[in-house]
Amino acid sequence: MSICPKGKVSKARRDKRRAQNWKISMPNLVKCNKCGAFTMQHVVCRECGTYNKRNIINLEKK
Asked: Does the global pTM surpass 0.70?
């Protein structure tokens, strides 16, 4: 005897079940050592222009 499925699973129902694992996660944010603004890890701070306690970009204050 062979295996008999209970019923046909439509492509939409099958793909809905598979799509549950493809959720977007929030990026991990850390505080800047100099100004305290939240930035992504291993990226130059947009507020003060520092990275790893060193000034990388000179930003002019408006």
From this structure: no
Give the pLDDT band of residue 44 (cuts 50, 70, 90).
very high
Q: Which residue has the tokens 């209970």?
A: 6
d(CA 27, CA 47): 18
Question: Rounded to an integer, what distance in angstroms lies between the CA atom of residue 62 and that of residue 57?
Answer: 15
For the chain, which residues make up each domain, given as ranges?
Answer: 25-62
Alpha-carbon gap, residue 53 to 62, rounded angstroms:
22
Q: Is 16:10 a contact under the CB 8 Å cutoff?
A: no
